[in-house]
UniProtKB/TrEMBL annotation:
Enzyme class label: hydrolase
The name this protein goes by in its record: Serine protease
InterPro entries documented for this protein: Glutamyl_endopeptidase (IPR050966), Peptidase_S1_PA (IPR009003), Peptidase_S1_PA_chymotrypsin (IPR043504), Peptidase_S1B (IPR008256), Trypsin_dom (IPR001254), TRYPSIN_HIS (IPR018114)
Principal subcellular localization: secreted
Entry keyword annotation includes Secreted: yes
Subcellular location: Secreted
The enzyme's E.C. designation: 3.4.21.-
Statement: the UniProt record of this protein carries the keyword Hydrolase: yes
Alphabetized UniProt keyword annotations: Glycoprotein, Hydrolase, Protease, Secreted, Serine protease, Serine protease homolog, Signal
Higher taxonomy: Eukaryota, Metazoa, Chordata, Craniata, Vertebrata
Molecular function in Gene Ontology: serine-type endopeptidase activity
The gene coding this protein: PRSS35
């Protein structure tokens, strides 16, 4: 699709949402994920090759035959590694407080609603070509990760992306050693920043969005992603948080706990990323979720490699207010070949932000759990 009437598109998406349903961000008390012990490990080798697609992923059907995870399993999966810019690596064991494992197991029982599995239709991605849109909220929260992925701004200096963008399950990938994040900024050809309200429109016409790159100071990812720890549920842990060396000064998007599909307006999710087949363009799309488990969502949104790691977001009402607010409820893991009853089927897979993952990511951002009690 060419340049799009974006306002039209956005108003369509919003109007689809107005109904009797209770589409509200109900804040709940979340469990706490606390550090038990941190040990220093040897520096990573950074030898793994980046892989865009994962074959033979144990997806929703395959996972549904596995025994339910116990609290100690989950504490093991949410234990995490931290890698600093200087190569220092630590491993941290966690424990939970105020966590009810029965509630987690119950959540999906009554909500498991399988949507119709349609095949991929026409390409429904929209290149956001308007440079004002690209550099303004919400699209401005989308960032490029130097290993060829996408990420999303979740704090003044943190970026959420997919774990496979930095680690292949066994080792950190080569490009993760000098990891950088690119933020689209409007800059004139001479390199100076665009001055707002400039009378000289001719100059403004030359202004083009380009990436401003910032080094990553620290990378954190859950052990659940590592080979030999989870295996069949590794994809549930395909997320990582990058801390930037300098704050980015842009508006970021808040995290939210992923509601079940029934509670998504139009059963739809949204995300934008830097798809490989459209170099230099920010690509936006939205589509319906066709299946879900407690940790994953399947959908047939059109997506190409490069958009992995995108933040999946939705818009719900703020409690007690009329305003709608976007929050990130998942991470786009990518196009994957999924094991369905021993056969390989292709899906686009997204990792949901569960209460535990919310607590963990929030802890990584704030360094304490006092700021992470409700989500
Ligand atoms: C993954 O599996 C599919 C279907 O079996 C196959 O067509 C594809 O080439 C495989 N991709 C890789 C990278 O192995
Ligand atoms: C690397 O950086 C971390 C975090 O700033 C620090 O704790 C550690 O001592 C540093 N290690 C080396 C070898 O400089």
């Amino acid at each position: 699709m060419g340049p799009i009437p974006l306002l039209l598109l956005l108003s369509f998406v919003v109007s689809g949402v107005e109904s009797e349903e209770d589409y509200t961000w109900h804040l709940r008390k979340v469990p706490q994920v606390l550090n038990k012990r941190t040990v220093t490990l040897s520096s990573p080798e950074f030898k793994a090759e980046a892989k865009p697609a994962l074959n033979g992923t144990c997806g929703i059907e395959c996972q549904s035959r596995l025994p339910l995870a116990s609290v100690s399993d989950l504490e093991n999966f949410l234990s995490y590694e931290t890698v600093y810019e200087n190569g220092t690596r630590t491993s941290t064991e966690v424990y939970f407080r105020d966590f009810d494992v029965q509630a987690v197991h119950a959540v999906m029982k009554d909500s498991h609603s399988r949507g119709k599995r349609q095949v991929y239709g026409m390409d429904s991605r929209f290149s956001i070509s308007d440079k004002q849109f690209v550099t303004n909220y919400p699209f401005s929260t989308t960032v490029k990760v130097s290993t060829g992925c996408t990420g999303i701004l979740i704090s003044p200096k943190h970026v959420l992306t997919a774990a496979h963008c930095v680690h292949d399950g066994t080792d950190y990938i080569k490009g993760a050693k000098k990891l950088r994040v690119g933020i689209l900024k409007l800059r004139s050809k001479r390199g100076g920043r665009k001055r707002k309200g400039s009378k000289r429109n001719k100059r403004a016409a030359e202004v083009k969005p380009s990436f401003q790159w910032t080094r990553v100071k620290r990378t954190q990812l859950p052990k659940g992603w590592f080979r030999g720890v989870t295996d069949d549920v590794a994809v549930d842990y395909d997320y990582a948080v990058l801390e930037l060396k300098r704050p980015h000064k842009k508006k970021f998007m808040e995290l939210g706990i992923s509601p079940t599909v029934k509670k998504l307006p139009g059963s739809r999710i949204h995300f934008s990323g830097f798809d490989n087949d459209r170099p230099g363009q920010l690509v936006y799309r939205f589509c319906r979720v066709s299946d879900e488990s407690s940790d994953l969502m399947y959908q047939y949104c059109d997506a190409q490699p490069g958009s992995s790691g995108s933040g999946i977001y939705i818009r719900l009402k703020e409690p007690e207010k009329k305003k709608w607010k976007r929050k990130i409820i998942g991470i786009f893991s990518g196009h994957q070949w999924v094991d369905v009853n021993g056969m390989q089927q292709d899906y686009n897979v997204a990792v949901r932000i569960t209460p535990l993952k919310y607590a963990q990511i929030c802890f990584w951002i704030h360094g304490n759990s006092a700021d992470c009690q409700y989500g």
